Amino acid sequence: MKEQTKRRFKLAGVILLLIVSAVLMIKLMPWFYSLRLPEVREEFKNYVASLGWKGVLLVLGIQVLQVVIAVLPGEPVELLAGMTFGIWGGLAICIVGLLIGTIMIFYLVRLLGKGFVEGIFSKKEVGRFSFLQNTKKLEVLTFLLFFIPGTPKDVLTYVAPLTKIRPINFFLIAILARIPSVITSTYAGQTFIDGEWWKTVGMFVLMGLIGIAGILINNSILDKNNGKERPKK
User: Fold this and answer.
1) In whole angstroms, what is the distance from residue 124 CA to residue 221 CA?
2) CA quadruple 18, 58, 152, 131: dihedral positive or negative?
3) Helices 38-51 and 53-68: crossing angle, nearest 10°?
4) Does a structural domain hold residue 231?
5) Looking at the domain assignment, is residue 59 inside a domain?
6) Are 128 and 226 contacting, i.e. CB atoms less than 8 angstroms apart?
7) Other residues' Cβ atoms within 10 Å of the Cβ of residue 220
8) Is residue 74 part of a domain?
């Protein structure tokens, strides 16, 4: 009876979270994508500045929300943080937001299990990381996957808690491995708002090239560890 009640609570939790996530996604998705427009970013920057310390909490809250609701894009938030608070201030806010969101996801997944994750992502997406369940290099591979650009980090953040990885190790890995990519975004944000266009464009070009290389490396790692590496000619 207790086990049945526990299952019902888990199911209710999954349904409730999915409903809340869907509502927030529908409401916020247009605004998140509108942040790509310079005039929207400038308007938001001025608004945040007018709030004082509450502006820090606002951007922090948006970052946490972006981490937890996986479909929301992260780059616009990081760019905004850089525009509003500079490279290092924006980095600090983004990292704290990443940490809070990652902790929330970790314990939510540990509580609700694999069915919850597969309710958010497809079985194919989740299955690509199934090798993490049996590898002896769990922490090393998790760090590499978070570090390499092109990895679907939203999926990885939800899948990794299904493994035997220790909470503190996962939190450190998820944060430290993502610092370089966050810095590039906050740097681009600050140079953009400062009118240093050539630096912004240069950073985006560099990020694009690194991203393409990262996707290739990421696919190679996933294919190799899933036993699908193509035979050498």
Assistant:
1) 16
2) negative
3) 130
4) no
5) yes
6) yes
7) 13
8) yes
pTM over 0.90: no
Q: 171 — alpha (psi -120 to 50), left (phi > 0) or beta? A: alpha
Domain assignment present for residue 230? The answer is no
pLDDT in tens, 95-144: 999 999 999 999 989 988 888 888 888 888 888 888 888 777 888 888 88
At a CB cut-off of 8 Å and minimum separation 6, what does 205 contact? none
Of 57, 53, 81, 60, give the one whose Cα is nearest residue 193.
81
Residue 1 has pLDDT above 50, yes or no: no
Please state, in angstroms and as integers, the Cα–Cα distance from residue 24 to each residue in 45, 55, 65, following that order. 22, 20, 9
Domain that holds residue 159: 2-225
How does pLDDT run across 26-73, given as a tens digit for each residue?
A: 665 565 566 567 677 677 777 877 888 888 998 899 899 888 887 777
DSSP letter, residue 162: G
> What counts of helices (H) and strands (E) characterise the chain?
11, 0
How many domains does the chain contain in total? 1
